[in-house]
Recover the amino acids of this structure.
């Protein structure tokens, strides 16, 4: 029983469903990843579909290898999101969308549930892997979050790899910006974020999220991904990463709400994610989460979500739509 | 009974203490303000003590006038924090602390609990009243948060009042930076933020928070104040504004935790604030909150907190330390 749950109970809140937490079989380890939720056409071009599935499988397989070898949850989360950032198919790192000025502004956050340590970066234009900068901010600055030129200066000072902003460009995202500029209301944001949630063999939980934001966003806009509690959260009971229209996940502080309901609230990850998605009926998006039992969860209210789940019982699946 | 509480209960979580929510007398309106918590010396220079108390009384009196006249909670919260920003005694707006580069980077957030609408701005160097910019972001951009040069450009585009960065300077904060540079570990941050929480005559709740951050912070550092859920939060059940070392309030998502415990958790504002401060034993700081019953709460774990409370039953008090 974790500390928060104890405090919750001693505070007169009776948790009749806490038994749910111990009803299942605890996995040695588990992991879920996502490459964004959104209006992903069911009839995808076969080539693109195969590319996305191959990318998800490659990242998920890396997670399996790392976790089987006993790597710590926060290190696995960082490495998987680094891989997803480097994959131009997804909206994070290389392949990020363009803002209304035709520029990229990247953001990311990471959190170690065992210590509540967290790090976040936003407004990045030249840092190749935002999640790695978030990790360094967490480990070395005494701060949680750095943004804009201050974040870039810090990245420079520690020798973090930086790239020309054009490195993030892809023709596909440029075409999206042009469609957005022509008809802002009609552009369906297809896949908005990448993320990973992890339970390691020691039972530690961690989450990480990274994104280029939304096509046509205003310069300086910060979404939910780098905001601790909104797009990214982990404590001793649950690790969470969100994807979808960021503003909705911010106003609901969605990741923290999932973690509290799953852990202290005794619902476990699946019921907690279902509950929070229902609380946001207007917000099309998705949430991945994993609780102390290690069952990876990936649910969404949008048309699709690039996602994968694996655990030590042999589960290994990658999916895009609901019907697979 | 609010919607979230209903969902919580139907979700198998029994709230034995929900009766606490209706045990008291509901006020027509209530308000709490703070000018920061921290290591405020008990033996303050009498002149400074009088100045601080006069400033708090002036702001609180404005709140009483506005609320008695039926002004909406979110408008009251914005106006009170605007007043606190313009008061050079407190660390927000004019009078903000300096970062390690000798510059000011200001940040603020506002939230309307009745709609969950929220707005936030960070990394501001020339916007006279950050809370007013946060409000405009909430009302007009479709985004929740803008930072850095993008936020400044937006402020310029809507004709918001901007000032030379030196306008925020005060000799006292410059001396603090010099002390910090000489001995970083020994500087006690005296008062770190300003904020307001409000319940209006219609029962709507709102909160607002603004700050210059912490003396000697890294360039680009974002604290808890502009982070929805961390330093600032409001929903239908509770409005919350935090002050103290921001990083601690971020990792605990403190404001959202208070609101959930107070509203959905049935504890009411006072018990919820006490609980969350106990959950953060290493974090010296303070929290103001107000719940649906309208009883304003201002509690802290630091040596002192500049604060004031008023409500429609005649309560009107301003305090700095615990023993008054």
């Amino acid at each position: 029983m974790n500390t928060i749950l104890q405090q919750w109970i001693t505070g007169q809140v009776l948790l009749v469903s806490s038994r749910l937490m111990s009803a299942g079989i605890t996995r040695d380890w588990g992991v879920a990843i996502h490459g964004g939720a959104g209006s992903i056409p069911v009839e995808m071009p076969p080539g693109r579909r195969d590319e996305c599935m191959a990318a998800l499988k490659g990242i998920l397989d890396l997670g399996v290898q790392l976790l089987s070898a006993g790597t710590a949850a926060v290190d696995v989360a960082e490495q998987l999101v680094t891989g997803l950032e480097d994959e131009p198919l997804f909206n994070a790192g290389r392949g990020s969308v363009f803002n209304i000025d035709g520029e990229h502004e990247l953001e990311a956050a990471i959190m170690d549930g065992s210590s509540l340590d967290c790090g976040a970066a936003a407004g990045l234009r030249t840092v190749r892997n935002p999640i790695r900068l978030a990790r360094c901010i967490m480990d070395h600055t005494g701060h949680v979050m750095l943004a804009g030129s201050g974040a870039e200066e810090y990245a420079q000072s520690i020798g973090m790899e930086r790239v020309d902003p054009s490195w993030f460009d892809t023709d596909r995202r440029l075409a999206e910006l042009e469609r957005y500029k022509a008809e802002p209301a009609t552009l369906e944001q297809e896949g908005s974020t990448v993320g990973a949630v992890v339970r390691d063999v020691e039972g530690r939980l961690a989450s990480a999220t990274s994104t280029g934001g939304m096509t046509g966003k205003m310069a300086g806009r910060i979404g939910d991904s780098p905001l601790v509690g909104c797009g990214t959260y982990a404590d001793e009971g649950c690790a969470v990463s969100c994807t979808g229209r960021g503003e909705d996940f911010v106003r609901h502080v969605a990741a923290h709400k999932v973690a509290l309901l799953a852990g202290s609230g005794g619902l476990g990850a699946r019921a907690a994610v279902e509950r929070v998605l229902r609380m946001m009926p207007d917000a099309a998006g998705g949430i991945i989460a994993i609780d102390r039992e290690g069952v990876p969860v990936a649910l969404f209210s949008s048309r699709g979500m690039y996602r994968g789940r694996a655990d030590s019982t042999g589960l290994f699946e990658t999916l895009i739509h609901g019907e697979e």
Remarks:
- Chain B touches chain A through 60 residues (CB under 8 Å).
- The domain at 32-93+100-311 of chain B is CATH 3.60.20.30 (Glutamine Phosphoribosylpyrophosphate, subunit 1, domain 1).
